[in-house]
Design goal:
- 2 copies of one chain form a homodimer.
- The first copy, chain A, has about 300 residues and is an alpha/beta fold.
- The longest helix of chain A has 18 residues.
- In chain A, the strands form 2 sheets. Chain A has a 6-stranded mixed sheet with strand order 1-2-10-7-8-9, sandwiched between helices.
- In chain A, α3 runs parallel beside α5, α3 packs across α8 and α8 crosses α9.
- In chain A, α5 links the parallel β3 and β4.
- The first copy, chain A, folds into 2 domains: about 200 residues, Rossmann fold (3-Layer(aba) Sandwich), CATH 3.40.50.1100; about 90 residues, Rossmann fold (3-Layer(aba) Sandwich), CATH 3.40.50.1100.
């Protein structure tokens, strides 16, 4: 295994000056609904609005002066793009963020606000790869993958590390799975003391199919409102998941919307649809968690109140 | 003055076992927008979703056994109704809550969930008074006014007391004004060390007109989305406000909506429109608060995500 619990601890020391130690919230009413004790790690209150700040800061601040001097680059229209832009700004280096041309203005603005350069490409996987390679060749920037990267995985694992310390230990921990950066890091931080479950939308079930068949699904066509979970799971993320994750729990789109409604009205937290798959999975699998002390990572809060799935 | 800082401190000791010591949140991005340091007291995370739990618990737990034995009653379809129902349930006594017949189902459900009896009346002030008097006569319950009550005022003041302790002191403190329970309690807790400002919607400006003319406005026709601020300011609340509040700042409906959008997207907190009048007032009066350390009480988070003012 290429990432160890020691790497997660080192990452936590490295990033601590640049991130929030986010609070843990709970709701007695929610606990009564689900029949277990839920403790929510509020990464929606993290810098740049998502846990992605952890991995991005760890990757950027781990670079040698030589590797860092030409800046960093990535492809991401979402939270990783903004988080990497912020991390680069903190270190005083350039960031080059490749985004599809149909990215919403509000997401572009978040990236630009951290002083990054935006490179637009056609909204296809091929165009993205080509644009990124071109940017790296032109600038000499260091590519920081959104999830299939040891330093990113170690950084994302620090959220679970903090949650375990803040709660005095957990029976189970639930995290959403997209590319697998958070689930891999969380599993390294929490396994085997705590059982780790990944939650995934049925409409983007590549990690589920990979986990059940043992063969990495490398292409799929996700159609989920969970915009943070549309990526395909990475190879090293999958290997860690096979080793340390107890199960992957699927949820429907309507279950995600219902869970998001509960989080907004009971916890009073603004969270993205991607953050609600975990509560949805608890609700669908109540017997599995009955009476347990269950940790849940609320991954991010970057959602546009003008564009909500409720009505 | 009938309520002293000592009463607020006593209230805090009395209610501490039954309420949350709510967290204080801040956002660097918001600070950059407004040009001062904003520290938000998250009473949207309070028990029953609003600061009203403080005053209700203080009133209910201050009653003698004799006064308490027949229960408590009030008229309120909103946060005070739910908070009083909860406080009565904690003490093991009955609560009778008079609400207009057009109250939304979600608000009724919140009151019923705390085991209270609901008494429906026609949606007029007269009908409400009649129904309340009838209920008090029938049951012998003790009437707890939503704001024009010393124990309620002392209880509401505990939010500012906590905020001052959590922040190490403030230059200014902003709170919304409706009936005036929170503004009176906050002013007693914070004045004169901290300047206290009330914020009010232009479309419900009875407190503003009372404050500016020195004569209590006792009837008005509010038409604001801030459903918690439609009440007319109470007599004792007005007297305290005249003595200890620096100014009342008016804001438009659009300014409230814009400020609520900022709170949702930057602080990631689900708050009611009534909670956004304070940030709106800071934005409209930036020079007044420039460079200051400013406390803001986010009063409540009971809002229906299916019924938002943004779109």
């Amino acid at each position: 295994m290429s990432v160890s619990i020691g790497d997660v601890r080192s990452a936590h020391e490295r990033i601590a000056p640049h991130i929030h130690r986010t609070p843990v919230q709970a709701s007695q009413q929610l606990d009564e609904i689900v029949g277990c004790r839920l403790l929510f790690k509020c990464e929606n209150l993290q810098k740049a609005g998502a846990f992605k700040s952890r991995g991005a800061v760890n990757a950027v601040f781990s670079l040698s002066e030589t590797s860092a001097k030409n800046g960093v680059a990535t492809h991401s229209s979402g939270n990783h793009g903004a988080a990497l832009a912020r991390a680069a700004q903190l270190r005083g280096i350039n960031a080059y963020i490749v985004i599809p041309s149909d990215t919403k203005q509000v997401k572009k603005a978040a990236i630009l606000a951290y002083g990054a350069s935006i490179i637009e490409c056609e909204p296809t996987l091929d165009a993205r790869e080509v644009a990124l390679e071109q940017a790296v060749r032109d600038t000499g920037a260091h590519f920081v993958h959104p999830y299939d990267d040891d330093l990113v995985i170690a950084g994302q694992g620090t959220a679970a590390l903090e949650l375990l310390a803040q709660t005095g230990g957990l029976d189970s921990l639930l995290v959403p799975v997209g590319g697998g950066g958070l689930v891999a890091g969380s599993a390294i931080a929490a396994h085997p003391m705590t059982r780790v479950y990944a939650a995934e939308p049925e409409m983007a079930d590549d990690a589920y199919r990979s986990f059940k068949t043992g063969e990495l699904v490398t292409s799929h066509t996700p159609r989920t409102i969970c915009d943070g979970l549309q990526t395909t799971i990475g190879a090293r993320n999958f290997a860690i998941m096979q080793d340390k994750v107890s199960d992957i729990l699927l949820v429907s789109e309507q279950e995600v919307i219902d869970a998001m409604y509960l989080l907004w009205t009971r916890l009073k937290q603004v969270v993205e649809p991607s953050s609600a798959v975990t509560l949805a999975a608890v609700i669908r699998n109540q017997k599995l968690f009955a009476g347990q002390k269950v940790g849940v990572i609320l991954t991010g809060g970057n959602v546009d109140p003008n564009d909500l799935p409720f009505t």
